[in-house]
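assembly run, all chains below
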Amino acid sequence: MTKEELWQTVLSQLQFKISPANFATWLKNTHVLTKGDGSVVISVPNNFSKEWLENKYHKTILQILRSTDDSIKEAFYTVERSQPTQDPYHPLNSMGQSSSPQDSGDQLELQGVRIHKATNLNPRYVFDNFIVGPFNELAHAAAWAIVQNPGTIYNPLFVYGGVGLGKTHLLQATGNEINKEAPEKKIRYISSERFTSEVVTGIRNHTINAFRALYRDVDVLIIDDIQFLAGKEKTQEELFHTFNALHEKGKQVIFSSDRPPKAIPALEERLRSRFEGGMIADISLPDFETRMAILKVKTQERGSPVSDEICDYIASNIHRNVRELEGALNKIIAFWRLHNREPSLPDMKAMLKSVINNPNRQVTPKKILEAVSEFYDIKEKEMIASSRKREIVRPRQIAMYLFRQELKSSFPFIGKKFGGKDHTTAMYAFERISKEAQGSEMFQDELSLIRQRIYGG
Ligand code: ADP
Ligand code: MG
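ok done. output:
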């Protein structure tokens, strides 16, 4: 069976397992890049698809692959640099450039997938290509200090910040650098979702002792996106004991999360206090100058330089995260490939139109309600209704506050929106939350993480 046939089989089965909208969104322009040695490398058009496939559909895809060809053990996803496509109507192909991924012979294309077996680290993420600015310098400095002296200074290191701001990059760079400097050290990088599923498998298959032995024997343990442990009691318990075992032996532990430990719902207190027991460093939004720097460095690096005017335009209009800046960068690279020149400002405006004027980016009451209820892991309905439970009342007040702040809603409107309450309730909520925000930087961070979700669509 050829690679093409294999992927066709997978797609035709996947089609029945996921919704048509998701299918179209995440699987468009994917294909099998290489196959062999028990593994399959799937090319995807962008980082979003890659993450989505890795996080949501990996199991299903692997299952189908294995059932189609039992020599397949693993599957990886990679974002191809040259955006190749099989589509004959695609402009790149009609120009006779890069018509198939094999043509390019670009070694770099496999960069994203050579995941190091023992450490589970992706070698693409290194300090060399990590740009430091005021928004991430604390986290960067802490990570760098750990590279010099693992297990001694900041233990654990807890890095938090919104999506696409470089947490994974920084954590993996730390692992890669330690690996380079001290190859004898055992390093293990894992997402909290994988960690959870390994605990579950361990319990189910009575292999939990092997799991424990593996994780308690490392020198550096890195767990990404720890917020997903919310409510997973068994996993939290395992992590607690693993952490203690490592910590006692002076082994380094690093965590990342989309929020500070205090704001992770349904987290055991003893674990929370462990998270807080070392160094907590946040990554905030890059400021304008840093966004310019990121664009400059990356466009240069990728051989598609653009003028200051273009960088300025992008940096002024895209401010949510580094991943979006990379999205703009990819558009520039595609443009260079197609036209062999730098895009003009009108070209750039046209290319970014859908991103910048996207109605999804405008804040709406619905978005605020969704973001707040998701953040605190409560039901939207409950927040609107009249529950007096503390875990509901506070998020409700925060949502009311955000209605006022972000939408400039009137107090009577807010009261009405929240189950027909009086305007004085809304006013009280607003004042209370404003006061709390003034008094606590920690709480301000919490609010800004929620805002990032609102504007992050
Ligand atoms: P997070 O884990 O916080 O969601 P990622 O680490 O996945 O974010 O970063 C998203 C993308 O942006 C990645 O491709 C990453 O390499 C890039 N990136 C993020 N921060 C930086 C940075 N400071 N310098 C260079 N690239 C960055
Ligand atoms: Mg990440």
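Confidence is low (pLDDT under 50) at residues 82-112.

The CA atoms of residues 16 and 23 lie 9 Å apart.

not gonna interpret more than that til we talk
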